[in-house]
Amino acid sequence: MLNYLAVRIGYAIPVAALVGLMIFLLVRLTPGDPAAILVGENATLADIEAVRQSLGLDQPLLTQLVHWVGNLMHGDIGTSIISQIPVSKLIAQRVDPSLSLTLITFVMTTLLAIPLGVLAAWQHGRFADRAIMVFSIIGFSVPVFVLGYVLIKIFAIDLRLLPVQGYKPITDGFGPFINRMILPALTLTLAFTALIARMTRTSMLSVLDEDYIRTARAKGAGESSVLFRHALRNAFIPIITILGNSFALLIGGVVVTETVFNLPGIGRLTVEAILARDYPVIQGVVLMMSFIYLGINLLIDLAYAFIDPRIRY
Amino acid sequence: MSAEPALRISHLSLGLRGGDRRLLMDDLSLEVGEAETVCLVGESGSGKSLTALATMGLLPSAVDVRGGAISVAGDSVLDASRKRIRDMRASRMGMIFQEPMTALNPVVTIGAQIDEVLRIHTSKSARQRKGDVLEVLESVNMPDPRGAYDAYPHQLSGGQRQRAMIAMALVLKPRLLIADEPTTALDVTTQRQILSLIRDLQTRFRMGVLFITHDMGVVADIADRVVVLRHGKTVEQGEVMQILRTPAADYTRELLQAVPSLVPRAATTEDAAGPALKVSGLCKTYGASGLFSKRQKVVAAADVDFEVRPGRTLGIVGESGSGKSTVARCVMRLLKPDAGKVVVGDVDIADQPESALRDVRRRVQLVFQDPYRSLNPRLPVGESVTEGLTNYGMARQEALERARDLMQRVGLPGDSLGRYPHEFSGGQRQRIAIARALSLSPSVIVADEAVSALDVVIQKQVLDLLRDLQREMGIALLFITHDLRVAAQVCDDILVMKSGRVVEFGAPADVLQSPAHAYTRELIEAAPGRNWDFARFAPVQAAGALSDARG
Known about the structure:
Largest sheet of chain A: none
Structural class of chain A: mainly alpha
CATH superfamily of the largest domain in chain A: MetI-like
Oligomer: heterodimer
CATH architecture of the domain at 7-258 in chain B: 3-Layer(aba) Sandwich
Shape of chain A: globular
Structural class of chain B: alpha/beta
Distance between the termini of chain A: 6 Å
Shape of chain B: globular
CATH topology of the largest domain in chain A: MetI-like fold
Order of helices and strands of chain A: HHHHHHHHHHHHH
């Protein structure tokens, strides 16, 4: 087991290094000049050049890379060119809403999608299955901003049950926090449930055809035991893969939802940084995201080994 | 014990729901008495497995009961409530299946899987249950029951898995055991152990056994009575000796005569031509140590030598893990041998780089074991048959012409080319696979367990076809099999492998009548029905030779 873990971590290191290098190059290959944006419309070329020098952007790429990596080794992700705030601090300010939204959505999705998928597989071809699949297609094809605005219209504007948008940290009290979280979390939950319920159904359907399911029935096991004890655990590997990836996607990639509900999260930080060509911030955020992806994939791999003894090396 | 038989099926009819409402089982009646073994025999599609599933109340939803009754130890199955039938499963009637690897849940330990039966059906404490599980594992002769308790299915051998399945079916000592081809997926020596175990437990627990098989050899070894089924109809039933000696129905005769016997076929004259395939000093070892882990080394082939001349057949016989498939793969150069020579015609392919192999590949063709998986289900069979030809530059029209020819040669209508694999039966698919192998006019064909997935009657037809084509076209055939009986019928020479080594080589008559190696003797001993000459409806040697197999 320790070996398995060591191998997985061993694979993660070169991947992380490669990702870092690619971000660094990608940011610099993007058209646009942060110095020009920083000095504003009326600056002369000399002004821009001066700013560029002060930011170190006039150095050769290799020198900039060495400098960046050197700082990273000391735990310094960099400082925003635009706001002069350290990137780590910027991320810390923005991570709360994103993480809260992610966790709530993740839990709701898991609790909703897996039972729905199991139910659909069990009732294969019958009414419940069809209904769940129709819901799944709708949930997946309606864009989140449409769904978000529809929910706002119904629950915030017409019924006046919830605030329209905004974010309050949990330290301001659970009520205000959760009131502002329900709608964005629900929006995302519907979209992700559609995906994961479908995945669960497919995976369960193939497992329910297996011989050991017949064996379980031949033992006299009841349906719930057949479904959850025998089938679901065997069906779990693809489900857990997509659950993990959804988690990572939620933390960094829900720009649209954050915009619709005016949540100051990581997604919006990234978009703002890209628009301003704020190299250190882009690099910092993307690097953090790639580490989250690696960490989650590591967890997924460990979960595989936990679920399926054949994977334990 | 009650006077009721372990199983009574009367006038059972099963049919397909909806659509054509085809009848799948027509008016079946049979009884399995206490401590009696009744064999249900028939080819695939005869309805034998459906009978078993109906008895367990496990019929697929597409099948419905049209009439009749089933009772297990006096209790009716067909009109029992869902709850009642769940209670009866495992406690009244246990079932074991063909493939113990897939029939056990791969992510749950053996102990927990057997324990589950006790948890469902009894109110015993965890400690009592564990005691019961260990006891039943002991009674099925599981080596190291405690180790097996905590093991996962993949950590056990095929035979041990089947023992675990039997333990699970018998932990509550049911009155009836249904065994659906329980030894078909096992090696012959393991098969023999499992058969005698079932026989032994049956006597001890005095349970009835409904044993489903397509192998008359197995029937001769274990049955008290036999029911022969075909297309859902009962062809005949009776005492085993009556069926074997004086079968009344033509179909039963056909079944019996198709059983390959251990009596080797007449030797053929040696051809003067040089060998089409010559293998010498072939070595292959698996499992070099990796970066992070040290794996055990497995010798799959050690210093293997043989040659096959045009028009002749060499059988490589061995059990799983003997290295026979490794040798086949090296001959195909799907694997690169560690050492040795593989000479096809006059080219040694053992050491050639991949790029140089293209021209040789067409001369060595393969027929796989499972015709259900070896043909691409999304391609019309014509595409599969012509693919090799067009790969080697033949014009499409010409290739189709040749494919049509080949289809007729393997006994299929020439217009089959546009149809898809699922429209053909297993035997027909194997004929298509043979046509595909022949399309490139190879000098060597490797048949890897090419008939083991087929019913005996079909098996015999495919073997006959293969032999005719081989003669006609002067092909050297390398025939890989675990079944000594089949090898005895088709091979000019037999090579027996064990743990990567050749332990015996010779003409079938010599190998079978005076085996030099203990392992060969063991294989011969284990061959089911070895004492019965099915084609002549009489024992092979003196009467009474069966008794030792039936212990």
